[in-house]
């Protein structure tokens, strides 16, 4: 178990249910006296839930009739039951199963809108699988950084008041940016992340909405993380003043 001074680094692992029973018990007691960790756990939990539902689409009005019409031609998957002696499904496995289920539902809804459930079934099923796999990879990548034993978190706010956090792991050589309350950047504009390599800004990916984003590129050489508003598609160099600039832990 970590020393008291290191308990603050366990927020991500706690939110993802990745702690051992003894660690979970000690950290749960720590939460009672640490408002900043409670806020961070809440943010991580909300992000995990958002990742799990990333593939959802609102069902159209004709979806029920279309699904009932094509249900006999859809092969059902067997239930995912743990084998004898195998431990229960992990938090990540539960999110993965949910993402796959929601992606398949989204493909059926899209087919209903186009009026061709049976004809387009195979193509949409493949697209659904690809979407689910992409969601799973994003979840795994974010989780590996957030739950890393050496994960460190810095927090701040943008000039507009949105809350921002960066979780970094030197052992993983990656960082995750978490935003909440970011307003719409406007038509033809997008949020862009940057690594601050001691004064030289390096592109690190685009943001389309609140939530957790795995930053592109490694931590090596970076002293901070910045966020700007750029033209759609991003820029090679910042064209506006940073909305926030967070210093990474040494």
Feature tags:
single chain, 250 residues, alpha+beta, 3 domains, 4-stranded antiparallel beta sheet, 6 helices, 8 strands, 21% strand, globular
Structure, explained:
- With 250 residues, this protein is an alpha+beta fold.
- The chain has three domains: 4-51, no CATH class; 53-144, no CATH class; 152-247.
- It contains six helices and eight strands.
- It has a four-stranded antiparallel sheet, with helices on one face. A four-stranded antiparallel sheet has the order 5-4-7-8, with no helix packed on it.
- α3 crosses α5 and α5 (91-114) runs antiparallel to α6 (121-146).
- The chain is globular, with a radius of gyration of 21 Å.
Largest sheet: 4 strands, antiparallel
Number of strands: 8
What is the count of helical runs? 6
Distance between the termini: 23 Å
Task: Report Rg.
Answer: 21 Å
Shape: globular
> DSSP strand (E) fraction?
15-25%
Order of helix and strand elements from N to C terminus: HHHHHHEEEEEEEE
Fraction of residues in H or I helices:
25-40%
Structural class based on helices, strands and sheet pairing: alpha+beta
Strand order of the largest sheet: 1-2-3-6
Q: How many discrete domains? A: 3
What's the pLDDT, averaged over the residues? Answer: 77
pLDDT < 50 runs, ≥5 residues: none
Task: Write a concise synopsis of the structure shown.
This protein is an alpha+beta fold. It has helices at about 10-15, 20-30, 35-50, 65-70, 90-115, 120-145; strands at about 150-155, 165-170, 175-180, 190-195, 200-205, 210-215, 225-230, 245.
């Amino acid at each position: 178990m970590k020393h008291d001074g290191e308990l603050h680094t366990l927020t991500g692992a706690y939110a993802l249910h990745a702690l051992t029973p003894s660690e979970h018990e000690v950290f749960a007691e720590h939460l009672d006296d640490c408002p900043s960790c409670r806020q961070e756990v809440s943010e991580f939990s909300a992000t995990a839930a958002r990742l799990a539902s990333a593939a959802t689409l609102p069902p159209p009005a004709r979806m029920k009739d279309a699904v009932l019409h094509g249900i006999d031609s859809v092969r059902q998957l067997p239930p995912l039951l743990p084998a004898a002696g195998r431990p229960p499904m992990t938090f990540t496995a539960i999110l993965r199963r949910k993402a796959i289920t929601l992606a398949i539902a989204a493909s059926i809804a899209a087919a209903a809108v186009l009026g061709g459930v049976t004809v387009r079934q195979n193509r949409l099923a493949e697209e659904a699988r690809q979407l689910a796999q992409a969601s799973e990879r994003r979840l795994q990548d974010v989780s590996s950084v957030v739950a890393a034993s050496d994960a460190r978190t810095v927090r701040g706010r943008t000039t507009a008041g949105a809350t921002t956090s960066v979780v970094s792991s030197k052992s993983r050589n990656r960082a995750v940016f978490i935003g909440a309350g970011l307003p719409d950047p406007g038509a033809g504009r997008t949020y862009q992340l940057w690594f601050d390599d001691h004064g030289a800004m390096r592109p690190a990916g685009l943001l389309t909405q609140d939530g957790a984003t795995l930053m592109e590129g490694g931590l090596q050489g970076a002293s901070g993380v910045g966020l700007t508003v750029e033209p759609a598609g991003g820029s090679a160099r910042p064209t506006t003043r940073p909305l926030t600039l967070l210093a990474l832990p040494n």
